[in-house]
Protein 1
Amino acid sequence: MNKTPKAFLISDIICLALLLVFFFLLPAKLFKSPTSFVIEASNGNLLSAAIASDGQWRFPVADSVPVKFKDCIIAFEDKRFYQHFGVDILAMSRAMRQNLKAKSVVSGGSTLTMQVIRLSRKQDRTIWQKLYEIILAFRLEFRYSKEEIIGLYAANAPFGSNVVGLEAASWRYYGRNAKMLSWGEMATLAVLPNSPSLVHPGKNSNRLIKKRNDLLDKLATLKYIDQSTANLAKLEPIPGKPLPLPQNAPHLLNRFKAERVLLEINSTRITSTINEDVQLKVNSILKRYNNRYRANDINNISALILDAKTGHVVSYVGNIYQPENIELLSHVDMIKAPRSPGSTLKPLLYASMLNDGFILPHTLIPDVPTQIAGYSPQNYDLGYDGAISADKALSRSLNIPAVKMLQQYKYERFYDKLKKLGIGTLNQPADHYGLSLILGGSEVTMWDLANTYMGMVRTLNHFNAHKGLYNPNDYKQATYYQTEEKNDQDYQRNSFLDHGAIWSTFNAMEEVMRPGDEGLWEQFSSSQRVAWKTGTSFGFRDAWAIGLTPNYVVCVWVGNADGEGRPGLVGIEAAAPVLFDLFRLLPNGKWFETPKTKLKKLKVCKQSGYKAGENCPDLVDEWVPTAGEKTVICPFHKLIHLDRTATYRVTDQCETITNMQHKSWFVLPPAMEYYYKIKNSDYKALPPFMSGCENGGGNNVMELIYPKNNAIVYIPLELDGTRGKIILNAAHRNQSSKIYWHLDNEYFATTTNYHQMAISPPPGKHTLTLVDENGERLVQVFTILDKENKRRN
């Protein structure tokens, strides 16, 4: 009897339903067990791993399974793996005959595909469950390739104790990558999943050896290896107790765990950009220095190396790793920790001022006692140069010139520049930091600091590649995991810092004498050229050193994670030696090319470093950033008028113009001159005026160094409870001149040569008047706070 159309429709629907059930039979994700977080070096070797949340060592599925393991597991479990479609009928029928004959389970007919299904389901195996597994095995074969199936098996098979998967087993039992295992070692691991609870390393060793040797003979029989190889493999020892996994980059591992979701990485495993050889050597160097520094209770040290060419992290050591000593806080990743940067931001200010046309590379900057709104910066050596070129102030890391430069540049502008350059820890308004921003008054992370300098390196490196244009992507943060490179081309005419300013800054940073070398390194052509800067935070809490070449940026931090300061914890002594030891690990390369089209040859006053004016006698041609054309003319060279003997200054009131000599003279303001001539013996002070000549140039012979005009001063109590004193300090162009001091119009003292006075005026506003023996006057006011006002402030 023929079927009706309705019957055909019903049968089609049933067939379609069965097809859909078969198609969607497997879950979207076959294995849902948590996996270990794993970081591999760029060469694929394991750097660090963390146990999965369920307490198992279970690595994510690898891209490929070693050929030796495939041969071993197929020979041991499923020799027709590549011929069947999930179920081996011959193996199943053989197993059924053997089990019926023995009246117990003595043989299994499960294929590797079926075992993958069983591992994913973890249910009691009834006859119906086994039938269902057969159906799922067929479905698995349709959905996955043979290589993917064996990869799932290798990643999820039990290997005894809390070890799951081939790779975890290889590291736990042999301490190396599975691809490096011998035939004997691989055969040992291949027999473990068959009976992990009964046969596992350290127990039942005779059973394990027999199973391994039987498999090796089988491999020889199946022609995977020859018999002599099998016999030699039988002589290999079996592993003892499980080994600890490598922890060569534990802080990077923790960073990856924290950032994985944000980075949109699905796997808990990454192949990093870390150079394993460099990472191990950096760990060793930091450990050696840490052992030395701990004698001074300096417990922590970290280092970061970036490849400027690729933007990759080469080495990431967030801290020494000693989890057994909890008090050392070695688990804290100091690369991510916000810390005071000390002086490490000074090159960024120098570059910004060059970039924006405020200074030239050698412009003289004041270095005199300074008080700004109650803030009194001090140089590390507590001395003063009077005036020093900007590049020398940078290489010597002088604080007062840096503050003077920031005062000129404006801290609000510098604050905005730092944010654009990638300093992400400036979470307070600019006024919160003020001028202390340049001396470590803010916080930075090593990550941001190194990335900012790498952005500058990349910008300068790409001068020719980008045909003089700028790519903002040069300031993208470094990556620590391998990913597809994106060639983002967004070239612009302007950048945060131009090529010329960066080049000049790196040249200034190269001038610092290296620690322990006493300058002798310059005599050896094999020594690497490095631009570098150190930093020390207030209270000796942080010691920094950052260095760079066209190829690498290296940053080092030394200190205590809990913020405790220690004597001797300074950048030049604690961090700089580490920095240069790390650079010795890296290959040498050429220095930066000179970006001549972004530099301009300018006539510069040799003595002052300013753009030369008509009164500058000694001129030099210098390559300066193009914005240097906007800088001011030298203010320190003045035309003075001398008598016919060139001994005295004169005016037209005491000398005829025809008898005058007109000469250019290098004249610093009195306070700068006072300190400058101490360190510069060739400095010539202005000649005195001829008797009978009036000083027509106004009062420029005296300057009050402290206190400045309108200063507010608090006088503290001494240790014995008596009221302290304020030290007045003045400078006069004529060192032998006398100064008569008056407070509130009352004379109180006379000084000659060194013009300093200690007084204890009452609280309130005061007028200080200085008169020299020629009648020149200097009048300034200052305010003394009382104790109550100090407390309120």
Protein 2
Amino acid sequence: MAKFQRPDQSGTPSRDVLGSVYPYLLPLLLFLAITGISRQAVLGFAVVALVLSVGRTPWGNLRGRSGVLTLAVVVYALIYLLSGLWCDFGAYAAQESTKMLAALAAFGLILARTGQGSLRRLFWSLHGVVTAVSLLCIDASSFQLLTRAFSALMGLLGCSYPLETMGYEEGVRITGIFSNANVSAGLIAFGLLLGLYLYRTAAGEKERAAAAVTLGVEALGFFLSFSMGAMGSFALTCVVYLICVGRGVRLETFVLMVECVLVTLVCSFGAYAFLGTGSIVPVLLAVVCGVLIWALDRFVGKKLVRAMEGRNRAVAISGGVLAAAVVLYIVLAFNLTGSLHLSADETVERAIYPDAGTYTVSVEGADPQVRIYAQNEAQLMMHTETVLYEGPLSQAEITVEEGTRVVWFQMSCDGEVESVTLSDGTEVPLGYKLLPGFAANRLQGLWANQNFIQRLVFFRDGLKIWRERPLTGWGVGGVEGRLTAVQSFYYESKYIHNQFIQIMDEAGVLGLAAFLFMLGSAIWLLVRRRKDAERGGEFALFAACLTMMIAHSMTEVVWSTQMYQVAVFVLLGAMVVRYHAAGESRRAVRSGACLAALLWAVTVVFSALQVSSMAAAAMFQGVEDQELSRSQFVSKLQTMDRLEVYDDSMYQATAMVNALQLGTTTGRSIANGYAAKLLESGEFNNCYYAAAYYYLPLRDFDGFFEACRTGLAQEASNPGAWNSITRMYIQAGAQLEPEEMEEYLGSVSQFAALLSDFNNTGRMETIQLTEENQAFLDAAAAQAGADGQSAYDALQGYFQEYR
């Protein structure tokens, strides 16, 4: 069998101009891929990535790196992107699909342009970008100078980063530039792992100092985000890192981790007081945190490691003492409390878990105004509460019902509250002496945590969605569309907070199999390279990153965010570059070329679909300036409908309205076709359009009700949807003549019966109409059996507003 020389992956030839520019562009491109969340920015990045992958060297790299993990990534990305085309909720699918497009383009770029000798540069680039994100997250919660510049810059790319939505969740944690502390923490965790690797393997003291400073910025940003899911996952990740890093450097790595924790904890105490104040102190402390980590490790940590080398028994004893100290600290941190100083504009919440009964409260020190409320299991799920008392705390008397899980004291005053005690001796915890204020606030109600309990609701509802379409799912973005159809009570969420269930909902068993294939391929690649655990350090880095990816996916849908997924795909690409051994047979070269072509083609095709979608939107905006006849306008809308593969409902609805108004057989046929398509989607807005602008003008009240019923099935838990349909019934009645009222009232009665039946299906809450809408339904029901004119006259008061 003929043999072929493997592609040169160690560098790029001097005549490769793009290759010589790439190392300098890489940090900027990664920053754009992670933070450029608009369709325009993603397409711009994808185009640049495709251009950089053109040439003999990048094509040879792509072909030579087309192994099982590459195949798994491409297959998962393809199924995910395809699911956006079968999603019934196109507006959601269009935006969600761009996230995968950015990640896939980044993956292809890494494979095409990064040589094995350039992996360290790649790690520094990604680490630097995550450090910048962490610094921005801290700045957004305090000084906001960097964040203002960032927001203005990203606005030029069509990316929305409004300052008012990011920054600081008062008294709890920073929410960062992404307005989501869980996502920020998940991304920063990868930066921490990269920082540990770069610090430990630094070639000199200058690089080690740079790694320490950036590591400190990320450590403070991660801790201030205080995502308990991310922290728990990262703790497990650190254990895996220590196991895989190798015996020769395990002790020094562990000592470095401990140093990072201690310094970060100290800096967080200093930063907390200045969060939300517009101060630059938290930003400065982020840099100081890194400097202190470097100084502590150089002047204390390294000496400690040298002193303990070869003393296995001493190391074991020290490890046990340290573990005991950590446990002791945690116990004391939760139990060592004292007085609490409150300023005039400050409100804090404290939680207790009393038995059922009646209690009075005694207070020492300042007497705050208090709002005391209780939550049982159902209320924890629904984020509702029962208020027990409001007023001066010293006068409080509360009755705790059976089944209560937690009681909250929401206190505000200007002064020092020394103690708060219930009549049975239960102390309300106030100031936590060993915890930063935001950590103490965040940990309140830990034993009856409504966020954790509601996650169980998300998981349950997510499985309901999956059972509706188990094989292929509802398409990417489908969770946001279908969630209101299966809820027992109304809440809003785009995601299920479990990546595995999320993928099942969006792409069914097919998508889950692809996701597991990708994770399994990455794990298998590492297992095959486990002998490298003692060399280089990349093995421990990749093993830890994979642990974080999987563990965090259990409680969050971080893979469904662009910033996280891009980082993940870059790391998976780095794994391929580091460990994939290209086959040399003709068959391997051919299969590699096919897979490389597939990766390139998927990126090109779905970029083109996004361009087509944006072109349709541009045409729709520009059509207002054109002088067109109604038939020409309909023809233009049909063209837009063909161009738009995601969210074509507006074009279809507008074409339906205008085609019906043509008054011709052809127009009626076009309108009828679009009405059928809108109803087929089952999406509430689409069905609303069909009911209001097709069936109502035709006075087809059976079709009108059927369209409403179909749409309401999708938004069943949303009171706003039911009120919207009720208002449409009132508006419809205002357009009718007396002789049409009898058939109209029959449709109203069907709607009222539908609402009654829905409210009797064992829901945790009932749908409540507004007072005006409920009064209309009652009045319409009272006209049952009346002649058209009598009903017309009786309901005029409700119709008057819409005449």
